[in-house]
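As a representative case, we now present a protein record of this kind.
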Amino acid sequence: PAQVVSDTRRLSDVEWFRDVYGDVVQTVRVAATEETRKRRNWVFIAGVDDAESECGLDQGVAFDWVITNDGDERSLDEQLETLLRSLRRRL
């Protein structure tokens, strides 16, 4: 079986899963440029967007996968399909 944890926010969260589940853990980061985020009506709010819960994983985590979501649907689909194929092989 596979389990998906959709919202880890701190390095200690990732470390816990890696400690408990070891090498089966696959970390996935979904990223978009600040420009793309602004086009999607995101506005930086001090004290919110710079809090540990929002940027605690920006450093110190070597993600297994980084999915770029900058608006290119074809590219996004290809990245997700590659990820899904890899995960299916692990089942």
Observations:
- The first helix runs from residue 11 to 21.
- Strands lie at 28-31, 65-68.
